[in-house]
UniProtKB/TrEMBL annotation:
Record protein name field: MAP1A protein
Gene, per the UniProt record: Map1a_0
Bias (Polar residues) ranges: 1-12, 19-30
An annotated GO BP: microtubule cytoskeleton organization
A GO term from the CC aspect: microtubule
């Protein structure tokens, strides 16, 4: 009864996904933990936040199992892409218990991805991870940018 009264007097402020929360702590860092569940299988997943270590850890790769992961980071000053996230892919994939093929698609050729690729190549092969290296570019009007073609 208290829960329904608080949601009527302050709609949406004290409930998150139907669970009562402390209205004083609305910051993302104090959010409720996500309950464990079965992994989600997808064809293509974009690694969040330009492959920044702020939002992605091994748990992401344990739970979101993709045939293709896109790495779009190209800002070394902000740690994008993050070596820790690329290592988290290896750690998460190692716990899948099945040897499904995974393809990593970097949208930029960065020093971080090159070093990670060279230093972990054996582990990538062991885990059935392939990294695409593409020199393809798209030219539109007066602008050109890297491109990858993905076929399913």
């Amino acid at each position: 009864d208290e829960l329904s009264r608080s949601s009527h007097s302050n709609p949406g402020k004290s409930l998150v996904n139907g669970i009562k929360t402390n209205p004083a702590s609305n910051s993302p860092k104090s959010s409720l933990p996500v309950p464990m569940g079965p992994p989600v299988y997808v064809d293509l997943a974009y690694i969040p936040n330009h492959c920044s270590g702020k939002n992605t850890d091994p748990e992401f790769f344990r739970r979101v199992r993709a045939s293709y992961y896109v790495v779009s980071g190209n800002d070394a000053a902000n740690g994008e892409p993050s070596r820790a996230v690329l290592d988290a892919l290896l750690e998460g994939k190692a716990q899948w218990g099945e040897n499904l093929q995974v393809t990593l698609i970097p949208t930029h050729d960065t020093e971080v991805t090159r070093e990670w690729y060279q230093q972990t190549h054996e582990k990538q092969q062991e885990l059935n991870i392939m990294v695409l290296a593409s020199s393809s570019t798209v030219v539109m009007q007066d602008e050109s940018f890297p491109a990858c073609k993905i076929e399913f």
